[in-house]
UniProtKB/TrEMBL annotation:
This is 3-deoxy-manno-octulosonate cytidylyltransferase. It catalyses: 3-deoxy-alpha-D-manno-oct-2-ulosonate + CTP = CMP-3-deoxy-beta-D-manno-octulosonate + diphosphate. Activates KDO (a required 8-carbon sugar) for incorporation into bacterial lipopolysaccharide in Gram-negative bacteria. The keyword Disulfide bond does not apply. It comes from Haloferula luteola. Belongs to the KdsB family.
Length: 251
Protein backbone atom coordinates (compact mmCIF):
# COMPACT_ATOMS: atom_id res chain seq x y z
CA UNK A 1 0.00 0.00 0.00
CA UNK A 2 1.53 3.30 -1.11
CA UNK A 3 -0.57 5.73 0.90
CA UNK A 4 -0.32 6.26 4.62
CA UNK A 5 -2.68 7.54 7.28
CA UNK A 6 -5.27 4.82 6.74
CA UNK A 7 -6.14 5.86 3.18
CA UNK A 8 -6.78 3.32 0.44
CA UNK A 9 -7.24 5.01 -2.92
CA UNK A 10 -8.92 3.15 -5.76
CA UNK A 11 -9.02 4.26 -9.39
CA UNK A 12 -12.23 3.18 -11.14
CA UNK A 13 -12.86 3.36 -14.89
CA UNK A 14 -16.59 3.29 -15.66
CA UNK A 15 -17.15 1.64 -19.07
CA UNK A 16 -20.61 1.14 -20.53
CA UNK A 17 -21.63 -0.45 -23.79
CA UNK A 18 -24.61 1.70 -24.78
CA UNK A 19 -23.14 5.05 -25.80
CA UNK A 20 -25.72 6.76 -28.02
CA UNK A 21 -23.05 8.24 -30.30
CA UNK A 22 -20.65 5.29 -30.25
CA UNK A 23 -22.12 1.92 -29.12
CA UNK A 24 -19.47 -0.52 -27.92
CA UNK A 25 -16.92 2.28 -27.59
CA UNK A 26 -14.84 0.71 -24.77
CA UNK A 27 -13.93 -2.25 -27.02
CA UNK A 28 -13.24 -0.18 -30.15
CA UNK A 29 -9.75 -1.12 -31.30
CA UNK A 30 -7.16 1.63 -31.35
CA UNK A 31 -3.68 0.57 -32.48
CA UNK A 32 -4.72 -3.05 -31.96
CA UNK A 33 -6.04 -2.72 -28.38
CA UNK A 34 -9.50 -1.94 -26.98
CA UNK A 35 -9.94 1.71 -26.04
CA UNK A 36 -10.48 0.89 -22.36
CA UNK A 37 -7.25 -1.13 -22.27
CA UNK A 38 -5.27 1.95 -23.30
CA UNK A 39 -6.78 3.90 -20.39
CA UNK A 40 -6.16 1.03 -17.96
CA UNK A 41 -2.52 0.70 -19.05
CA UNK A 42 -1.93 4.43 -18.56
CA UNK A 43 -3.44 4.24 -15.07
CA UNK A 44 -1.25 1.27 -14.20
CA UNK A 45 1.62 3.78 -14.28
CA UNK A 46 0.08 5.73 -11.38
CA UNK A 47 2.02 5.68 -8.13
CA UNK A 48 -0.72 6.95 -5.79
CA UNK A 49 -3.40 4.37 -6.54
CA UNK A 50 -3.58 1.37 -4.24
CA UNK A 51 -5.98 -0.44 -6.55
CA UNK A 52 -7.39 -0.10 -10.07
CA UNK A 53 -10.68 -1.50 -11.38
CA UNK A 54 -13.03 -1.26 -14.34
CA UNK A 55 -16.77 -0.99 -13.62
CA UNK A 56 -18.96 -2.09 -16.52
CA UNK A 57 -22.55 -3.02 -17.33
CA UNK A 58 -21.73 -5.44 -20.13
CA UNK A 59 -20.41 -9.01 -20.20
CA UNK A 60 -18.45 -8.35 -23.42
CA UNK A 61 -16.47 -5.55 -21.77
CA UNK A 62 -16.13 -7.66 -18.61
CA UNK A 63 -14.62 -10.60 -20.51
CA UNK A 64 -12.30 -8.43 -22.61
CA UNK A 65 -11.02 -6.56 -19.55
CA UNK A 66 -10.42 -9.78 -17.63
CA UNK A 67 -8.49 -11.09 -20.65
CA UNK A 68 -6.02 -8.19 -20.54
CA UNK A 69 -5.59 -8.61 -16.77
CA UNK A 70 -7.84 -5.95 -15.25
CA UNK A 71 -9.90 -6.22 -12.09
CA UNK A 72 -13.48 -5.90 -13.36
CA UNK A 73 -16.74 -5.27 -11.48
CA UNK A 74 -20.06 -5.99 -13.21
CA UNK A 75 -22.74 -3.41 -12.41
CA UNK A 76 -26.36 -2.71 -13.31
CA UNK A 77 -27.11 -1.44 -16.84
CA UNK A 78 -29.66 1.01 -15.41
CA UNK A 79 -27.34 3.65 -13.93
CA UNK A 80 -27.96 7.16 -15.30
CA UNK A 81 -24.32 8.23 -14.81
CA UNK A 82 -20.83 6.84 -14.38
CA UNK A 83 -20.90 8.19 -10.82
CA UNK A 84 -23.82 5.91 -9.97
CA UNK A 85 -21.98 2.97 -11.56
CA UNK A 86 -18.92 3.70 -9.42
CA UNK A 87 -21.03 3.94 -6.27
CA UNK A 88 -22.40 0.44 -6.92
CA UNK A 89 -18.89 -0.89 -7.60
CA UNK A 90 -17.80 0.34 -4.17
CA UNK A 91 -19.68 -2.55 -2.57
CA UNK A 92 -16.96 -4.80 -4.03
CA UNK A 93 -14.19 -2.52 -2.68
CA UNK A 94 -14.75 -2.43 1.09
CA UNK A 95 -11.26 -1.12 1.91
CA UNK A 96 -11.51 1.93 -0.39
CA UNK A 97 -11.44 5.25 1.48
CA UNK A 98 -11.09 7.45 -1.62
CA UNK A 99 -12.01 6.94 -5.26
CA UNK A 100 -10.68 8.50 -8.46
CA UNK A 101 -13.29 8.38 -11.25
CA UNK A 102 -11.21 8.11 -14.44
CA UNK A 103 -13.03 8.53 -17.74
CA UNK A 104 -12.82 5.22 -19.60
CA UNK A 105 -12.56 7.00 -22.94
CA UNK A 106 -9.36 9.06 -22.42
CA UNK A 107 -6.57 6.80 -23.71
CA UNK A 108 -3.97 9.58 -23.38
CA UNK A 109 -4.76 10.53 -19.77
CA UNK A 110 -1.68 11.71 -17.86
CA UNK A 111 -0.94 9.34 -14.93
CA UNK A 112 0.61 12.27 -13.06
CA UNK A 113 -2.75 14.08 -13.05
CA UNK A 114 -4.45 11.01 -11.56
CA UNK A 115 -1.69 10.87 -8.92
CA UNK A 116 -2.09 14.57 -8.14
CA UNK A 117 -5.83 14.13 -7.56
CA UNK A 118 -5.23 11.08 -5.37
CA UNK A 119 -2.53 12.86 -3.34
CA UNK A 120 -4.76 15.92 -2.86
CA UNK A 121 -7.55 13.77 -1.42
CA UNK A 122 -5.13 11.90 0.86
CA UNK A 123 -3.62 15.15 2.15
CA UNK A 124 -6.97 16.83 2.92
CA UNK A 125 -9.16 14.28 4.71
CA UNK A 126 -12.13 16.67 5.02
CA UNK A 127 -12.20 17.52 1.32
CA UNK A 128 -15.29 16.06 -0.38
CA UNK A 129 -14.09 16.06 -4.00
CA UNK A 130 -11.28 17.14 -6.31
CA UNK A 131 -11.26 17.67 -10.06
CA UNK A 132 -9.10 19.35 -12.72
CA UNK A 133 -9.30 22.16 -15.25
CA UNK A 134 -7.29 23.47 -18.20
CA UNK A 135 -6.54 27.20 -18.48
CA UNK A 136 -7.89 28.79 -21.67
CA UNK A 137 -7.22 32.17 -23.23
CA UNK A 138 -10.40 34.22 -22.71
CA UNK A 139 -10.41 34.83 -26.49
CA UNK A 140 -10.44 31.08 -27.27
CA UNK A 141 -13.63 30.14 -29.21
CA UNK A 142 -14.10 27.23 -26.79
CA UNK A 143 -15.16 29.74 -24.14
CA UNK A 144 -18.39 30.34 -26.09
CA UNK A 145 -19.02 26.63 -26.78
CA UNK A 146 -21.77 25.16 -24.56
CA UNK A 147 -20.23 21.71 -25.00
CA UNK A 148 -17.14 23.00 -23.17
CA UNK A 149 -17.81 23.22 -19.44
CA UNK A 150 -16.18 26.13 -17.62
CA UNK A 151 -15.40 26.49 -13.91
CA UNK A 152 -14.57 29.44 -11.65
CA UNK A 153 -12.81 29.05 -8.32
CA UNK A 154 -12.29 30.85 -5.04
CA UNK A 155 -8.84 32.20 -4.24
CA UNK A 156 -7.98 28.90 -2.50
CA UNK A 157 -8.85 26.86 -5.60
CA UNK A 158 -12.26 25.60 -4.45
CA UNK A 159 -14.93 25.49 -7.13
CA UNK A 160 -17.52 28.27 -7.00
CA UNK A 161 -19.54 27.32 -10.09
CA UNK A 162 -19.50 25.22 -13.26
CA UNK A 163 -21.33 26.33 -16.40
CA UNK A 164 -21.78 25.78 -20.09
CA UNK A 165 -21.98 29.56 -20.47
CA UNK A 166 -18.87 31.75 -20.77
CA UNK A 167 -17.54 31.99 -17.22
CA UNK A 168 -16.57 34.48 -15.92
CA UNK A 169 -18.12 37.25 -17.98
CA UNK A 170 -15.33 39.80 -18.55
CA UNK A 171 -17.03 43.14 -18.13
CA UNK A 172 -13.54 44.42 -17.39
CA UNK A 173 -10.25 42.87 -18.56
CA UNK A 174 -8.22 41.30 -15.73
CA UNK A 175 -4.58 40.59 -16.57
CA UNK A 176 -3.58 36.98 -15.99
CA UNK A 177 -7.09 35.71 -15.23
CA UNK A 178 -7.71 32.70 -17.49
CA UNK A 179 -10.91 30.90 -18.23
CA UNK A 180 -10.81 27.32 -16.93
CA UNK A 181 -12.17 24.45 -19.01
CA UNK A 182 -13.37 21.70 -16.68
CA UNK A 183 -11.79 18.30 -17.25
CA UNK A 184 -14.12 15.42 -16.42
CA UNK A 185 -12.05 13.53 -13.88
CA UNK A 186 -13.11 13.39 -10.24
CA UNK A 187 -11.81 12.14 -6.91
CA UNK A 188 -14.10 11.63 -3.91
CA UNK A 189 -14.13 10.64 -0.28
CA UNK A 190 -16.03 7.37 -0.05
CA UNK A 191 -18.54 8.68 2.49
CA UNK A 192 -19.26 11.70 0.32
CA UNK A 193 -19.81 9.64 -2.85
CA UNK A 194 -22.18 7.27 -1.06
CA UNK A 195 -24.17 10.27 0.14
CA UNK A 196 -24.04 12.11 -3.20
CA UNK A 197 -25.81 9.36 -5.15
CA UNK A 198 -28.74 9.40 -2.71
CA UNK A 199 -29.50 13.07 -3.42
CA UNK A 200 -32.02 13.87 -6.16
CA UNK A 201 -30.80 15.87 -9.17
CA UNK A 202 -30.64 19.50 -8.05
CA UNK A 203 -32.18 22.53 -9.81
CA UNK A 204 -28.94 23.93 -11.25
CA UNK A 205 -27.79 20.43 -12.22
CA UNK A 206 -31.02 19.94 -14.16
CA UNK A 207 -30.72 23.37 -15.80
CA UNK A 208 -27.11 22.94 -16.97
CA UNK A 209 -27.05 19.12 -17.17
CA UNK A 210 -23.92 19.04 -14.98
CA UNK A 211 -24.03 16.63 -12.05
CA UNK A 212 -21.13 18.32 -10.24
CA UNK A 213 -23.53 21.20 -9.53
CA UNK A 214 -25.51 18.79 -7.31
CA UNK A 215 -22.44 18.61 -5.08
CA UNK A 216 -22.07 22.40 -4.90
CA UNK A 217 -25.78 22.95 -4.30
CA UNK A 218 -25.57 20.59 -1.34
CA UNK A 219 -22.62 22.45 0.18
CA UNK A 220 -19.75 20.19 -0.91
CA UNK A 221 -16.16 21.39 -1.21
CA UNK A 222 -14.53 20.64 -4.59
CA UNK A 223 -10.84 21.43 -5.05
CA UNK A 224 -9.94 22.30 -8.66
CA UNK A 225 -6.40 21.45 -9.77
CA UNK A 226 -5.08 23.44 -12.76
CA UNK A 227 -3.51 21.10 -15.32
CA UNK A 228 -1.92 21.33 -18.74
CA UNK A 229 -3.12 17.79 -19.51
CA UNK A 230 -5.49 18.30 -22.44
CA UNK A 231 -5.81 14.61 -23.34
CA UNK A 232 -8.81 14.24 -25.66
CA UNK A 233 -11.75 11.97 -24.96
CA UNK A 234 -13.11 9.63 -27.61
CA UNK A 235 -16.78 10.23 -28.36
CA UNK A 236 -16.89 9.27 -32.07
CA UNK A 237 -15.11 6.85 -34.44
CA UNK A 238 -13.45 9.90 -36.04
CA UNK A 239 -11.94 10.91 -32.70
CA UNK A 240 -10.71 7.33 -32.25
CA UNK A 241 -8.80 7.67 -35.54
CA UNK A 242 -7.24 10.92 -34.32
CA UNK A 243 -6.12 9.28 -31.05
CA UNK A 244 -4.64 6.40 -33.03
CA UNK A 245 -2.67 8.95 -35.06
CA UNK A 246 -1.42 10.61 -31.85
CA UNK A 247 -0.42 7.25 -30.37
CA UNK A 248 1.44 6.30 -33.55
CA UNK A 249 3.28 9.65 -33.54
CA UNK A 250 4.39 9.05 -29.94
CA UNK A 251 6.15 5.79 -30.81
Amino acid sequence: MLNSGGTHIVGILPARWGSSRFPGKPLHLIAGKPLVQHVWERCRQCRQLDELAIATDDSRIYEAAEAFGARVILTSPDHPTGTDRIAEALASLPSATHIVNIQGDEPLIDPELVDELAATMAAHPRLDMATAANPLDPADPAVQDPNVVKVVTALDGRALYFSRSPLPYFRNPVDGLPVYRHKGIYAYRREFLEKFVTWPPSPLERAESLEQLRALENGASIQVLPTLDTSPGVDTPEQALEVERLLSAAH
